[in-house]
Predict the structure.
Amino acid sequence: MSQIQAPEMSELLEGWSERAENLIPILQEIQERYRYLPETALREVAERLHVSLPEVFHVATFYNCFSLEPVGEYLIQVCMGTACHVRGAPRVLDRILRDLKLPHPGTTQDMQFTVRTVRCIGCCGLAPVVRVNSHTHPHLTQARVPGLLKKYRPRERRPGVTAETTASEGRTHAEAQRG
Ligand code: FES
C-alpha cells in the first residue's frame, strides 16, 4: 500500500471546514480511500482541525472501523461477543484462519483478506455472525466457511469469473443470508 501523498491529502481535506466535529467523517473518508489511516494523514488532519495528535489517535484507535495498518481488500470481522462465542464463533474463526493459512488474525500476503475479531456487532439474534466489509453473514458454521471465502477469492483463482462478478456474488450471498 503506497504512502498517502501531500497533494492527495490537500485535495481530500479541501471539502471540509476546519472544525473538530469533522474529525470522524474525515477519518472515514481516508479509511475508505486508502483502507487504513496512515500516520502522515493523521498528523495533517490534526493540524488542519486544530485537534491534538493524541486525540486524533484516540479516535482512530477507538472505533473498529478504523485501522492504523493497511488492510486487505476484504475485511473479515468475526464477532466474538458472548452470543456468538457460545454459538460456535471460535470454531468459525479457526476454520477461516486455517483456510486463509493465517496463524492468527491478520492480513494475507496477497492483501486480499484481513481477519479481525470484534466484540458484539449488534445482531446477536443472528449469531454466530461474520461481517465481510459491510455485508453481514449470519448463522455461520465451520462447514459454510469455504463457500463464504470462495465468494471473495480473487478471480485468477476462479477461471472465467471476473472481480465484478466475485463482488456481486458476495453481495447476493449476503443479501440471501439476510433474507
Ligand atoms: S455477540 Fe455477536 S452480534 Fe452480538
Notes: Strands lie at 74-79, 113-118, 130-132, 135-137. Residues 163-178 form the longest helix (16 residues). The chain has eight helices and four strands. The longest strand covers residues 74-79.
